[in-house]
Amino acid sequence: MRPWRRAATVLVALMLLTGFTALMLDRLDRAFPPPLDQAADVSRGVLDRNGKLLRAYTTEGGVWRLPVPLDAVDPDYIDMLIAYEDRRFRSHPGIDPVALVRAAVQLVLNGGRIVSGGSTITMQLARLIEPRGERSVIAKLRQMARALQIERRMSKDEILSLYLTLAPYGGNLEGVRAASLAWFGREPKKLTLSQSALLVALPQSPESRRPDRHQAQARLARNRVLSRMSAAGLIPESEIMRASGTKIPDRRMTMPDLAAHTADLAIRTRPDANVIALTLDGAVQERLELLATETAGRLGPRQSLAMVLADAATGEILASVGSTGHLDTGRTGAIDMTRAIRSPGSTLKPFIYGLAFEDALIAPETMIDDTPADFSGYRPRNFDRGYMGEVSIREALQFSLNVPAVRLLEAVGPQRLLSRFRRGGIQLELPPGGTPGLAIGLGGAGISLRDLVQLYSAFANNGTARMLRDGTEGTPQNLFDQPVIAADAAWRVAEILSGVTAPQGAPRIAIAYKTGTSYGYRDAWAVGFDGRHVLGVWVGRADAAPVPGLSGIETAAPLLFEAFVRSGLDRVDFPEAPRGLVARGRDSLPYALKKFRSTDKVANVSAGGTLPPQIVYPPQGARVALGSGGAGPLMPLVIKLQGGSGPYRLIANGEALPKSTRRRVLNWTPDSPGASTLTVMDAKGRAASVSVFIDAR
Q1: Which stretches make up the Penicillin-binding protein transpeptidase domain (predicted)?
Q2: Is 293 contained in some domain?
Q3: Rounded distance between C-alpha atoms, residue 542 and residue 526, angstroms
Q4: Lowest-confidence region among 20-34, 202-216, 577-591, 640-654
Q5: CA distances from 399 to 392, 481, 526 (A)
Q6: In this prediction, what percent of the chain has a pLDDT beyond 70?
Q7: 308 - beta bridge partners?
Q8: Catalytic residue at 85?
Q9: Residue 619 shares a structural domain with residue 586
Q10: pTM for the complete prediction?
Q11: What residue numbers bound the domain in which 451 lies?
């Protein structure tokens, strides 16, 4: 056979052999693909509106494994990693023949001791997705085969991103993002030279180099990486020396743990989503949670708090603090009190006034009686148990007087008020079998803090409420079709509330606000707003136990003002008065608006005839906590009366106290915890009694 024919035959044979080998390898590749799907088991994360991690959750195996795209990692760290681990990463097909030959030569020259493994980043990824315990030639060949398969399926950036998600960094930390958060308390977007070098060194031997357990080994490994970078001329020597002297972290930091109640709800309601974005602003949330933690120390034993801050224009919740801390077991912090149904006290009064403005029953300077009244057996009293006589509507709302509010509610109708709340997407919770009565104006119904803030969003939207959303429910933004109150009426209410004096010691900021205290001193409320934002605050006990001295103005209002300042949000001015709205002084009001007069159904109680005494606090059957939090004596119990004629005498458990008093506020210090019967007798011999249980907690 001629030479050219032999050459052609050999060439054809080689081509056929190559094709057959490629075909067999392709079939093997298809039959035994790399288990890349297993790498999809990553930690679930909840993000804020800007993509900041609020809270993360371990995988089912208890591992922190946070996925991270390359553009979220410091590029200098990536360059250092490639230069140290696999400098030909961008050009080789998954295995690096040059590195393998170098590793083999070093193995022979060093008497069988491994100096370098020759593994590429792709081979290391193969070991991570298919871990095997043995270290052998067969295991290495398997990694090489898997590396070739991985390179066929993924781009270089995808390979690098997956490696940075799965690489071990000590303990249950996997991936550079989890490591950066745990060791440095920061995202890997911007790392120092020292931090980058430590993160490059850890995956090679994550347990023996753990910074919190093996400081010396971690420092040596980091400095070894820095020295390699210096020898390669990639980093100036001066920077290397500075980075080598930087302290190694000696403890793990906690993972981001903001908005725990909202994040947990999001995880439960969206079980198929690995990453859930909420409307919350992480920076605002963190500041308000810090305020809640600081405030916990000033609250009484077992008291908690909750806050909801919303953008009234969009309905997006910017911060939601469900308690003083979800791990605060002493205050039942695991309960999200932003969603708990509680009595709102006087916080619903602005809507009563709004309806009365809408019906042209009153004007801000209309006068109204704050005097004793009997509404078919219902006899409301003011918080301080006194009366102011004839006051203007402006004063009645600003001072949160009860009798004027009930007079107006009797005129506009409780059912109509409830129907307006339904326009704002809110259904009040009434007592079982109960019908709406006048008591709902003073807190005789149930509502959550979140729903209350939703109602108050109407004041920033010309009377129309915005449905609140935080990203857990998937509800699109929605401005309700019908207003809660007319735009003119909403503006009048907001203008009056903006003139309420800030609580003593609170920052002076331009907000309108309303406070409330529920019956029995169980809940303290404050809701404030500017031209764009609404913030609601609740303080009380999660178990609904009474708290002596608790009040909206003294407990919740200062926290409201402080939270507005701490939020860092710019204050938005209130809108101008609607066109055509005229502010009139009392002298220029029409005769019908000079004074509001109740209907015939309201009977005024004459000054000469007093009602029998009544103990309004503590209520019948109350369980009152009077413990100081330690082993000391019990605190005094504040007893508040209404009606009757002084002087009054208190009889506790059948024993009369030696002194009588004309004050309607009495103090009694029990000898011991347990059941007690309290009786108050007035000058005319009329008496009222309640049975309570004194708790030493």
Answers
A1: 306-526
A2: no
A3: 17
A4: 20-34
A5: 10, 32, 14
A6: 88
A7: 320, 536
A8: yes
A9: no
A10: 0.79
A11: 318-594
